[in-house]
Structure formats: C-alpha cells, structure tokens
Amino acid sequence: MRTMLFACLLLSNILIAQNFTLTGTIINQKNLEVLSGANIFLKELNKGAAADENGNFRIPGISKGFYHIRVTYIGFIPKDFELNINKDRNIRIQLMPMILKLPETIIKGKRAKFRQTPVAFSNLKSAQIEIELGSRYLTSSLEKLPGFYVSDEGGGFADSRINIRGYDQTSISVMINGIPINNPENGEVYWSNWADLSDVINYIQVQRGLSAVPYSVSSVGGVVNLVTAGGMIDKKKIKISSQFASDNFRKLSVSFAYPLLQNKIKLIGLVSHATWNGYAENTWAKMFTYYLSLETILGNHSFEIQLMGSPQKHGQRITPHSINTWNAKGLRYNSDWGYLHGKPLNARDNEFHKPSLTINHVWQIRSNTILTNVFYFSHAKGGGHVPPWSGFESTKSGTIDFDKIWLTNSANIDTNYSSDLSRSVSALRFTYHIHNWAAFRSTIDYKQNNFKYTFGVDGKYYYAQNYSTLSNLLGGDYYIGSGNVNQNPNTLLYPGSKVDYDADSYVRSIGSFGQAEYNSGELNTFINIAFAATGYDRIDFFNYKNNNPKRETGWKSFFTYTIKSGINYNYSKLTNIYFNIGSFSKAPLSMNVYTYTNDLFSNVKNENIFSTELGYGFNSNNAKVNVNLFYTLWKDKALNFNVFLPDTYTFFHANVYGGKSLHKGIEATGELTLSGNFSLNGMFSIASYKWLNDVKSYLTPEGNVNEQIVFDSKIKGLYEGNSPMTKIVFGFKYKQKFSNFAEYYINADYLFYGRYYAQFDPVSRSFNNEANIQSWRIPDFYTVNLHSGISIKIFSKYFNKIDLRISVFNVLNSKNIIQAIDGSDHNANTALVWYNRERWISGTLSLDF
Description:
Helix content is 5%, strand content 54%. By secondary structure, the chain is mainly beta. It has a 26-stranded antiparallel beta sheet that branches. Strands 8-14-15-12-13 form a 5-stranded mixed beta sheet.
C-alpha cells in the first residue's frame, strides 16, 4: 500500500510540475530572411523542434533550469549557447551563412519559399509523413493536398497513380532529389519501384501548375520533388522500426546516420524488408529496400553519392468489373489468378529492380557564384506475367480455370508438328522491360545585390528493351506462333522463347535554361526561359526482316520551349499576393509518336500549354490561409491509357490525338492553432476539367500489337475522368505532454470527393448518337482516417526514444468507388469500376539509439 501511495505521489509531482515553453524565430543574419526547416536542440532534454515556413519554432514542456542549446541549418554555421529558462521565453536566433553552401542547393532542387516564390506549393515534412502514412504507399502521403487525387486502382502493392488538377501522372514531373523519374517512353511513374523509400524521405515539396522550377523539362499538372535524407549530421544515430498492418503486412527497417573522420564525411543509410498477403485475392508482395548516402567536403567543393533501390515482386489485380459483379463476388475478388494443381497461380504479377546512382557536386567558385552538377544513372530489369490475347476460361467462382487449361494442353497432340509432344494452345507470357537511363544537369548560380541569375544545361539518354517470352506452357510441351517474321512460323517454341513482340526504344534529350530573380524582401519576381530538343528512335525485331531498313524508324525530334514569369508582393507582415503566367510546348511521349509497327502517327505534333495563376496568403502566429485561382489551356493534347472491353474480356492500348482541354478552379488551405496542443486544418478545391473538342483514337490489342483500330471519339463537352473536381478535407491535431519524458498525439482527417466522372471509352464514343452525353458520374464519397501515438524519451546509455504509432484507415468502413471506366449506356449498370479498401489498421514500433 505504501509503495502504491509513493508511486501515485511521484506521478502527481511529475504531472503537475511547472513547465515552460520556449518559442522564437530563426533567421539569416546576413539578409534577415527566415530559415524554414532550421533545427533547435536542447541537449539536456534530448529534444528539439524544426522551424516552420515562417522560421518560427515552439518547444513546450520545459522545466526550470539552464540548458545548452544548439541551432543548425544546412549551409549555415551552427550556433551554441546557454539559456536560463525560468518562465516562458521567446527568442530571436540569427545564423551566419557558411562560405560554402553545401549540397542543399542540389538535393532540394529549386525549392519554393513561402512569401517569396509566386506559385502554389505545399511542403510535407518527414515527421508528418511518419505519423500519417502508416504502411501505405508513398503516394498516399499526398492525398490531403489541394487538387490531388490518389487512387490505388486494383490494389496491388503500389499499383497506384496520382492526379494534380485533373492531370494524371504522365503530365506531372515527379522527381527524386531534383531528377525526373517519369518513364521517357510513356510518362508513367511506377511507384512500386519507389514505394518503400518513405523511410528515407526528408520532405516532399509539391509545386502545382507551372512551378518555379527553371529546368528545361516543364510539367502541366505540377512538380512533385521527393527529397531524401542527407546533409549535415553531427552525431551517430540508429533507428530500428517494426511495422505491422492488416492482411498480414510485416516490415522491419534499420536506418542510421554516422559522421566519420571528425565529421568530415557523413554516412546515411537504410535497409528494410517487407511482406504482405495483400487485401485483394492473391495480391501478395515481397520487397527489399536499400539506401546509402555518402557526403564530404574537399576545399571549396562538396560531393554526395546516393545509391538506392527497391527490388520487389507482387501479385496484381488489373481487371475491373461491373458493380453487380463486385456485389456478387465481394470487394476482395480478383479475376486475374486461379489454382493449378491446388496451388495459386497469378496470370498477372510484377517484379522489378531499378537501382539508381546519383552523384551531386557543388563548387563555390566565388562568394556569390556556385556551380552545381548532378549525374544520374539507373539500370533496371523486370516485368511480369500476362495472359495470352485470347484470354483464359474461368471457373464458376470467377477465378481462372488453370486445371482445365492444363488438361486441354497436355492432351493436345498435333501431328503436324510432333507425334509425341503436346502442343499448348494457351500459355502464360512474361513481358520484359530492361533499360539503361543516364541523365545530367549542370547549373551556375550568380548573385548580385538583390538579383540572382541561374543558367544551365540538362540532358538524358534512355535505352529500353521491351519483349515478351513464353513463361508457363500450362501442361503442353511446346507452343507454335511467335509472330517473328524472321523465324519459321512452324518453329517449336519453349519457355523462354520470344513471342508476340520484341522492340528496342531510344530517347534522348538536351536542354538549356536561364532564370533571373529579384528579391527585395517585399517584392519578388522571376522570369524563366528554357529550350529543349527531344528525339525518339525505335527498332522492331519482329515485324520486319533483318535486312529491311524500315525495322528502324530513325530519329524523330521535337523542339520545345518554355517561358514563364511570376511576381510576389508582401504588402504586410501577414499577407502576400502573387501571380504567375506562362506558355510552353511539350514534346509528345514516345508511345504517342510511333505505332507498334514503326509507323509514325499521322497527327503527332508538339503539345501547347498556356497557364496562369493568382494567389493570396495570410500567415500569423496562430492562423494560416492560402487561396489561389488557376487556369490551364492545353492544345494538341496526346494521351495513352489502357481500355478494357468486357465483351471480349481483353485489354487495348489507346492512343488519343488532337485533344483540347481546359482546366480551371480555386484551391484553398487553412490552419488554425487554438492552443499549444490543439489545431484545426483543412482545404478545399473546386474545379472544372473539360474536353473542348472531339479526338481521334487508335486502339491496339494488348496481345496483338500489330493490329490497330481507329475511331473518331466524340468527347467535346465531356468532363475529364478519373479525377474528382470537388475535394474537401477537414482535420484536427491534438498532442498532450504527460511529462518531460512522454508525449501523446491524436490526429483525424475527413476527406470528401465529389463531381467525379468515369474515364471515357474511345470505342463507345465513336457513334454519332454519343455527342453531348456525359460520362457516368461516380457517386460522391468520403473517408475518415485516424492516427494516434505516443513518444517516450529514455535517458539511458543505449536508447534515446521509443515511438508507438497506430493508424486506422477508412474508420467508418465506407464502400466507395474510387475509379471507373464509362460503359456503353453511360450509367452505373455498364460502368467498370474499382472499389476502395475496407477498414484496416497499421501500427509501427520504433527505437532510436
């Protein structure tokens, strides 16, 4: 009893002990600009904070006493001092820039700054990503941003896509440390190659619309820059995390930061391994991730080498279905697999490994002149199983009847080819994609008074092999019919033999850019001009004889330009307005230049975009509001996507030409701090994404790329599909300190999506009576997510902190259609759809050493 009483008294003293709060602002001593992201650390408490976009920081729960404080920011001289805290304190800290500005300028690229850069942008810090992401894919961290839509499509591991302002990811420049990672052939981003890199993300910056990025590669929807960990570290750090989630997701990761040779070399790394059963049937996943960053300074030069990769294998669910089918089969139903001899077998899966090496170099030529160089190389290999063009027969349960196919193939003796071997009439393919990708960027920055000038060149070279092989003969001994005109059509083919197609693709580009900026504190402007030349070449090894000169297309080049400008005016300490405007031409993607038989598409040309934006910002100590209007007109738009025809149960590659679209709308974000522990946040975007003319569509069967069907698709006046035009997000954040050692938080978010239309079907839109009929409108929907956790400081020789985080996604278990393809009757009965994932839970336990 006495022990319990003593424990209660001790706990009471801890909880009621008088604590104080340290607040303040961190600024550049030379020009008095705020230093967003600067770090302040209290040595005795082993705790700290990062400055927000206004340079402000807040550290609550400090007991009375003297503390050693260290303030750091990349590119600035660290500051150490002692402070007596016997009441709430507010201080102003000035840091002096280093003579050498370290690789921050490279790694972060051209980072937009609040009240300075005249574009709409958002920043996501690693702490927020850690709290809210859970075991989801990296794309999900972007879901609360204005104008964003994230879809997990069929639900295979990281088989997700993003849209900004109605534009899909082929029209968005996605970068890792300033290097674009969109595939040069089709513009896609294969997130499964990068999905597990969330553990090493330092921050993500999204610039919507034109962006202020000066490089020669422009984007329509915006720029998403994923910035990995790196930079100044002055102490050893090791972190071990164990993650678990619904459907048997398991992940173990180890990250570390290690200064070497008296802090002259900084080493940062991560390794992780994860497995998952998948929430849809047979969408299992296995993945391994590695990341290594090595940084050093040699005189007036700094260097950083980064190596990263994420080899993975996962089962897929590619085929959408009608609402009636989902209601009958359940939301976890997957028609892209079946049983063979009692064991599951995927007809569609994916495996890929894309290791990449980046070398960053900074040379401080003079105090006001910096040269930066970035070199990037990646070698990738992978692919996945796909069914034959004719498809597979299904069982009554809806899965593929592999056993029946096996019996048919194994009993099929075709004496025209062999008297004792069985001929397969249906076989699984494995499609290979292998590429080498090299890129560089060289930039020189020169500052003079309030002016800054940036000039540079960039380029890339990309070579890819794309071919299909026989993978599983499903009971047969051989297969007939490769499709290769250089081969005897009666040749017996075996697993590993190439079939259907075999082609190499080449992309090369070179560009130059220049940007001038003026910054007086109140007034900030920029003007950017860039030029680029992009060329494509293709070699077809199947459709032409080896001596036929048409087997290679030769280089087809496109010359593009960018001109954009913006101005920001800070007319008070709390408010600012900005405006930007620009025009640029965009080279069509390789997939929209040549057909699968090396013919040049007749309507191929540069795409032309005009965009403008007007914005307003308000920022005080406890309230933040940003509002912007945008307008984007896109002419001669070319796009490619997959079309599924339920009548024949087959996929087609669709190429669409001559599109003209108008996207316009309003976006707003807000944050209100009601107390030191409680804040509200929200956003809304209301937009219109509409086609302004009819287009020509070319459809190529997935399994017979030599065939092509042409349609005149009547889409004038249609709303563009696959991106909601209304989005509302509302949430709160609450944190409570129990003592100097423990802090608890709980965050909740409500996300609403409305005015959402299905993707048009080029085939059904080819009939005369289809004009002016809208695609099916997907029902409005919402979802609620909840995040909670506790952080406990441990003052021991080995451990620093324990974190436990729990997230519940889709708390209310709402059943929502997240993506749809319009049907022949443009209603719910004929649409093909995907549903969201049911309620699920994710948890993380991490130890800091």
